[in-house]
Amino acid sequence: MKFSMIFLVSNILLLVTSPAFAKTVSPPAPIAPTPTPTPAPAPAPDYVNLTELLNVAGPFHTFLGYLESTKVLDTFQNQANNTEEGITIFVPKDSAFNSLKKPSLSKLKDDEIKQVILFHALPHFYSLSDFKNLSQTSLTPTFAGGDYTLNFTDDSGTVRINSGWSITKVTSAVHATNPVAIYQVDKVLLPEAIFGTDIPPAPAPAPTPEIAPAADSPTEKSADSKSSSPLASPDGSSAYKVLSYGIWSNIVLATCGVLVMFL
Q1: What pLDDT shows up at residue 233?
Q2: Which of 206, 168, 196, 200 is nearest to 101 (CA)?
């Protein structure tokens, strides 16, 4: 009996210490956590080409020429595509530049012309509906900085811009998708900081031409001459008859007198 117990314990020890048994009773391997998927990067906004927009929507050739010659185009492009604020540009048509008589941009220095072009943009994107709130502020800064500010008013959806020298209005939206807004205006924005406050008066309206009196007709002249003549009478034919009758009466009387003398 004692031998059987020893044999049984020996077998149990051999079974427990054997590699096969250790392999079967080893703890399960830990389960690796499921990796969290990395979100896809947001698509980059479309690049806005200001030159292409102005060429297609024009005619804005004069304004675009100033943008390129002053290098302001690079500033506006960078603001449009590389900032979160966006940009708002007010673009005059070619006819607005052609109508400038006094003052003229041709007499300005290069840095002054650059300031005038910078004066036509705001360093923020504004939709048409935003101008209602913008009109509540007295002065709005432009890219030109400093005293180069604009004043906006919104009258039932009609947006007017006071540059300090003249008042113009937004006539249409060329492009109004964030981050770029381009609006057409009917006048060039001239800053008071360059041109001063001596605003030329509006031209006086042309005088109304006087209407010359109608010339007297020949019939009226002849009637006036007859009425002013001493021989004229209300009835010319009646006067002629009376005169003829008097002459014939005198002739008859003279003839009778001669006959009486010879009888």
Answers
A1: 43
A2: 200
Confidence category of residue 158, pLDDT binned at 50, 70, 90? very high
Query: CA–CA separation, 101 vs 240, rounded Å?
Result: 75
Record the pTM: 0.61
Q: Do residues 150 and 139 make contact, with C-beta atoms less than 8 angstroms apart?
A: yes
| Cβ atoms of residues 190 and 103 within 8 Å | yes
Q: What is the pLDDT of residue 242?
A: 44
| Residues 201-221: tens digit of each pLDDT | 555 555 555 554 455 544 444
- So what's the pLDDT on residue 260? 47
In this prediction, residue 240 carries a pLDDT of 46
User: Dihedral sign, CA of 79, 81, 84, 89?
Assistant: positive
Q: Which residues contact 54 (CB under 8 A, 6 or more apart)?
A: 60, 63, 64, 67, 91, 174, 182
Instruction: Give the pair of three-digit tokens for residue 125.
Output: 């994107």
CA gap 163, 191 in Å, rounded: 6
Which uninterrupted H or E stretch holds 134?
A: helix 131-134
What are the tokens at 20?
């096969």
Angle formed at CA 224 by CA 218 and CA 227, multiple of 5 degrees: 145
